[in-house]
Design a protein that fits this description.
This is ABC transporter ATP-binding protein. GO terms for molecular function: ATP binding; ATP hydrolysis activity; transmembrane transporter activity. One of its GO terms (cellular component) is plasma membrane. It comes from Bifidobacterium choloepi. There is one protein chain. The chain has 8 helices and 10 strands. By secondary structure, the chain is an alpha/beta fold. A hairpin with a 2-residue loop joins strand 9 and strand 10. The two termini are 29 Å apart. The model has no long low-confidence stretch (mean pLDDT 94). The structure holds adenosine-5'-diphosphate (2 copies).
Length: 232
């Protein structure tokens, strides 16, 4: 079962002399309940691929589907709807609202979308993510790892079809990274969560079921249960 796919996905910036091909005719499928790591050097197209998949960026040509619906053909209203219902985001810089508590941050997307709050689900996610008695704390009162775990819980709250994570451990020390990755892993194992994660961190990639490597806008390696010796 496929949760998201790209068909002949092409993205270029600029024209003529200044033309940059960020994605060169990419075909890829992301499967349900799978955690995929996207690796590759800086400038290889990782962010562009993820942004096109998530409807944050528009491809020059080609198609993107999430849950069988064509993202690349959606208008603004449908995209907003898609992001509220089908897609969760985790960013390198956490992107929490500084004036709100951890709990308020976790619930904010549901409130903005006027969606009901499933308290059982909230309790389960908060328990798994290990925030304990810190739910009333503001982001500035939390460590980086704790802030990222709040962001993970926020992404899980709406039960998205797929979570896109952009360098989720990029600002974290190795212990906090491990906690965040273990949570993501558990969300795959226990809830069948689908995750697509851009990372430079080989340890982060080692948590994934599958690794894609990009170079110059093309997929140069696509391995299930990869042998990291071979990649690194
Ligand atoms: P990453 O650390 O994920 O590789 P970058 O630093 O390459 O991110 O890019 C950060 C943001 O800047 C992205 O949203 C990307 O679209 C944008 N960006 C990257 N390169 C350029 C560029 N040459 N001109 C304008 N924007 C760019
Ligand atoms: P990565 O995430 O692997 O670092 P990006 O997807 O950010 O790569 O960028 C791929 C290529 O597209 C790079 O050459 C980058 O400079 C270029 N690029 C990305 N965003 C923009 C933009 N907004 N304007 C111009 N060029 C961009």
């Amino acid at each position: 079962p496929v949760v998201a796919r790209a068909i002949h996905l092409h993205k270029q910036y600029g024209e003529g002399e200044s033309e940059v091909v960020a994605l060169d005719d990419i075909d890829v499928e992301f499967r349900r309940g799978q955690m995929t790591a996207i690796m590759g050097p800086s400038g290889s197209g990782k962010s562009t691929l993820m942004h096109c998949m998530a409807g944050l960026d528009t491809p020059t040509s080609g198609q993107v589907f999430v849950e069988g619906r064509e993202v690349s053909a959606m208008g603004q209203k449908q995209l907003t709807n898609l992001r509220r219902n089908e897609i969760g985001f985790i960013f390198q810089s956490f992107n929490l609202v500084p004036t709100l508590s951890a709990e308020e941050n976790i619930l904010l997307p549901l409130q903005i979308a006027h969606k009901p709050i499933d308290r059982d689900w909230f309790d389960r996610i908060v328990h798994v993510v290990g925030l304990g008695n810190r739910l009333g704390h503001r982001p500035s009162q939390l460590s980086g790892g704790q802030q990222q775990r709040v962001a993970c819980a926020r992404a899980m709250m709406q039960r998205p079809s797929v979570i896109f994570a952009d360098e989720p451990t990029g600002n974290l020390d190795s212990r906090s990274s491990k906690e965040v990755l273990e949570f993501l892993r558990r969300s795959v194992r226990d809830y069948g969560q689908s995750i697509v994660m851009v990372t430079h961190d080989p340890r982060a990639a080692s948590f994934a079921d599958r690794v894609l490597v990009l170079a110059d806008g093309s997929i140069t390696l696509d391995m299930d249960h990869p042998d990291y010796e071979e990649i690194l």
